[in-house]
Amino acid sequence: MRSHRARTVLVAAVAVAVALPLAAQEKKPPLSPPAQAEATIGGATITVDYSSPRVRGREIFGSLVPYDKVWRTGANAATTLTTDGDLMIGELHVPAGTYTLYTLPGESEWQLIVNRQTGQWGTQYDESQDLGRVAMEVSSLAEPREEMTIAIRPGEGHRGTLAIEWASTAATVSILAH
After folding, report:
1. Is the torsion defined by CA of 166, 57, 78, 29 positive or negative?
2. Smaller CB count within 10 Å for the chain: N or C?
3. Residue 18 three-state SS
4. From CA 52, how far away is CA 23, in angstroms rounded?
5. CA end-to-end distance (rounded Å), the chain
6. Which residues contact 129 (CB under 8 A, 6 or more apart)?
7. Which residue has the higher pLDDT, 15 or 60?
8. What's the rounded mean pLDDT across residues 15-40?
9. Other C-beta atoms lying within 10 Å of the C-beta of residue 175
10. SS3 state at 96
């Protein structure tokens, strides 16, 4: 009896030892993987860290992301913007530092919200911490985008653009480095 029990325990231990590496190999990538946008505009290095959700057959704006409600602008942890130089984002003065970015999507208008609170989960929005809000230009993409992306696009001189693109929507705002 003892040897049968010992063999059963040994077989079970071997099965677990084989199954664990297989499970690790089969680990699926996150549904909203981490992403980063970085650029230098007018000497200021600007970095945006975010999680990039996918459409996966869902209706995005006006459904998954409701209109006229603050959106975390991505998934998971709050999206952060870090700049080592002072910026003007639209008409908003943004001193060097780290901030959280939220958006307020609408059917035809969006607002970018720059918030002083950092380190929180993306759904923990505190309006009293807003540095300010700026209007974004909204347009339709020629080709739908499966993954949500945030890009910082340098322009001429000290100018650039922050762009959010997902599904069939693009929202942009100008950046000016001081």
Report:
1. negative
2. N
3. helix
4. 25
5. 81
6. 115, 116, 117
7. 60
8. 74
9. 25
10. coil
Determine the length of the chain. Answer: 178
* Residue type, position 34, single letter: P
Which DSSP category does 60 fall into?
T
Give domain limits for the chain.
29-177
| Tens digits of residue pLDDT in 61-78 | 999 999 999 999 999 999
DSSP element (H, E) containing 81: strand 79-83
- Tell me the two tokens of residue 139: 């347009």
Q: Rounded to an integer, what distance in angstroms lies between the CA atom of residue 41 and that of residue 1?
A: 75
The answer to whether 134 and 171 are in contact (CB under 8 A) is no
* Rg of the chain taking only CA atoms, in angstroms: 22
In angstroms, rounded to a whole number, what is the distance separating the alpha carbons of residues 56 and 128? 34
Q: Is 127 helix (H, G, I), strand (E, B) or coil?
A: helix
Tokens representing residue 64 in the block: 């998954």
Q: What is the pLDDT of residues 100-147, one digit of tens each?
A: 999 999 998 999 999 999 999 989 999 999 999 999 999 999 999 999
Average pLDDT, the chain: 90
Sheet containing 130-154: which strands, arranged edge to edge? 34-41, 44-51, 79-83, 97-105, 110-115, 130-154, 159-177, 87-89, 92-94
What is the helix (H) or strand (E) element at residue 19, kind and residue range? Answer: helix 2-25
Which band of pLDDT confidence, cut at 50, 70 and 90, is reported for residue 29?
confident
